[in-house]
UniProtKB/TrEMBL annotation:
Job of this protein: Responsible for synthesis of pseudouridine from uracil at positions 955, 2504 and 2580 in 23S ribosomal RNA.
NCBIfam families on file: rluA_subfam
One Pfam family this sequence matches: PseudoU_synth_2
CDD domains reported in the protein's UniProt record: PseudoU_synth_RluA_like (cd02869), S4 (cd00165)
Domain RNA-binding S4: 22-81
Residues of the active site: 144
GO biological process, one term: enzyme-directed rRNA pseudouridine synthesis
Catalytic activity field: a uridine in RNA = a pseudouridine in RNA; uridine(955/2504/2580) in 23S rRNA = pseudouridine(955/2504/2580) in 23S rRNA
Family: Belongs to the pseudouridine synthase RluA family.
Domain of life: Bacteria
Record-given protein name: Pseudouridine synthase
Enzyme nomenclature, EC number: 5.4.99.-
Length: 316
């Protein structure tokens, strides 16, 4: 199909009723199968994507009936013949901790991205789609690549919309993390209410800092145990900002162990030598929420990743 400029391959797609409220970037990823997320953002920024004839932003919410101009893209075959490796497929299959008709919950291993892009061919969502080719799967939320633990993937559009609404509502989803923080935190619950701002990308990397111009962000730290002079903590968050726990912990002066971006390089070196910790000690341990207006409660848990449990044991 050609548009009025005669460019072959351009499509004008009408947003279906069941896509009402979907973000433009996620809609495009569904339309441009195999396109890297970075390419989708580039197309939007350059104005090649239009909504009802107007430029739009990636985060814009679409309405049923909107007309979206989708430009043609040429995607390169991904490494490994366009499918995730058997090793990755098996890893993600084993990581599934819960599944029903509405959603899949996995305990994501550290080092696996939520989705492909930025030099990564396949992440959790692409791998699950390869494992469940007949299912319509959508990421509900993301975890940093270095963070392990619970991620939820919706199997139905209705579940996706409910979960996204709960994420936008403070306290809609109870989120509990486990983290090892450097030094000795005070006893009791330490509340951090500090706005976070995503600074300009440098070399493709996001850098987040505490800044009054940022978005409201609240975290609550509680020491569970003292181990080797460090603090093993439970962290509950009311908001889900990028790198929130890591930046709030650093703001307290007690960075997350193994954090190469916001942490303490000397602390990380000592912990590598003492207990073999070679990754970020941050794990999404539990999620609590309810679907269908509270009639369908979920309590999802993911045990501490084995390599973190071993490092904690070695600390004594």
């Amino acid at each position: 199909m050609a548009d009025d400029t005669g460019v072959a391959g351009v499509r004008h797609v009408q947003v279906a009723d069941d896509r009402d409220g979907q973000r433009l970037d996620n809609f495009l990823l569904g339309q441009l199968k195999g396109a890297p997320r970075g390419l989708v953002y580039k197309l939007v920024r350059s104005g090649q994507v239009r909504v009802n004839g107007k430029r739009a932003k990636a985060e814009q919410r679409l309405a049923a009936g909107d007309a979206v101009r989708v430009p043609p893209v040429r995607t390169e075959p991904a490494a490994g013949g366009g499918t995730p490796s058997r090793t990755l497929l098996d890893l993600i299959e084993r990581a599934i901790v819960f599944e029903d008709g509405a959603l899949i919950a996995i305990s994501k291993p550290s080092g696996v991205a939520a989705h492909g892009g930025s030099g990564v061919s396949f992440g959790v969502i692409e791998t699950l789609r390869a494992l469940r080719p007949q299912a319509s799967l959508e990421l509900v939320h993301r975890l940093d690549r270095d963070t392990s633990g619970l991620m939820v993937i919706a199997k139905k559009r209705s579940a996706l919309l409910q979960l996204q609404a709960l994420l936008r509502e403070e306290g809609g989803i109870g989120k509990r993390y486990l983290a090892l923080l450097g030094g000795r935190l005070p006893d009791g619950v330490l509340d951090v209410d500090a706005p976070l701002h995503v600074a300009a990308r440098q070399g493709g990397e996001r850098h987040v800092r505490v800044d009054a111009v940022g978005k409201p962000s609240r975290s609550h730290f509680r020491v569970l145990e003292r181990r080797g002079g460090q603090s093993y903590c439970e962290v509950r968050i009311e908001t889900g900002r990028t790198h929130q726990i890591r930046v709030h912990a650093a703001h307290l002066g007690h960075p997350v162990a193994g954090d190469g971006k916001y942490g303490d390089a000397e602390l990380n070196r000592r912990l590598r030598e003492r207990c073999g910790l070679r990754r970020l000690f941050l794990h999404a341990a539990s999620l609590e929420f309810a679907l269908d207006e509270g009639r369908r409660p979920y309590v999802l848990n993911a045990p501490l990743a084995p390599e973190l449990a071993e490092a904690l044991d070695r600390l004594g």
